[in-house]
From TrEMBL:
Pathway: Amino-acid biosynthesis; L-tryptophan biosynthesis; L-tryptophan from chorismate: step 3/5
Keywords: Amino-acid biosynthesis, Aromatic amino acid biosynthesis, Isomerase, Tryptophan biosynthesis
Source lineage: Bacteria, Bacillati, Bacillota, Clostridia, Halanaerobiales
All copies of domain N-(5'phosphoribosyl) anthranilate isomerase (PRAI), residue ranges: 5-197
Protein name: N-(5'-phosphoribosyl)anthranilate isomerase
Gene symbol of the encoding locus: trpF
UniProt cross-references to InterPro entries, sorted A to Z: Aldolase_TIM, PRAI_dom, RibuloseP-bd_barrel, TrpF_fam
Annotated catalysed reactions: N-(5-phospho-beta-D-ribosyl)anthranilate = 1-(2-carboxyphenylamino)-1-deoxy-D-ribulose 5-phosphate
Amino acid sequence: MTRIKVCGITRIADALQAVKYGADFLGFIFADSPRRVSVEQAARIIAEIPDSIGKVGVFLNHPYDFVKEIIKETGINYLQFHGSESPEYCQEFRLPVIKAFRVRDEKSLVGLGCYQTAVYLLDSFHPDRAGGTGKTFDWQLAAKAAEYGKIIIAGGLNEENVQKAIHLTRPFAVDVSSGIEKSPGIKDKLKMKRFIEKAKDR
Ligand SMILES: O=C(O)c1ccccc1NCC(=O)[C@H](O)[C@H](O)COP(=O)(O)O
């Protein structure tokens, strides 16, 4: 069954709803974003979440020591590197790594084979925004990435298109953020429920 990552969590209520509806991973953004959480905020939310749920810290070209500190202070147990972090940098950490690639065309996936990460997350390229764009990319390109390992499909997913994305790309997981929001960082309960139901129905 396709796993589900709900990203951009900023509130305990949203985290608990996502778990109740069946999310497998929750994402906490430490990069510059309207969905950014403080260390204290993330730690407070994570303390309320069952152990079985993956808690993913999302980073963007952060210094090694910053990431180490967040791991220590919050209890995140997955690392998502969303920038131009090198394979060597990703291997410095003991936690499982999700390396993100922002897909514009085939060339965006060059270098993917150099990483030895747990999973690859494919997100949409946007010239000004690193993530949470609400835009999809050409899902046909996901097949190339799948040759290298497990993939997570991200970027512009919502209750209308998630089944098609799963059907076309057969991912390990799907990732959603703005497609289930009322406003950045504030999730819409009903949209979240419907998204998860649709994703689980595939
Ligand atoms: O979501 C953000 O604001 C963000 C900002 C900077 C780096 C990464 C960010 N998000 C990472 C994610 O994993 C999002 O879930 C992913 O970009 C998909 O977002 P959306 O298109 O809104 O579903």
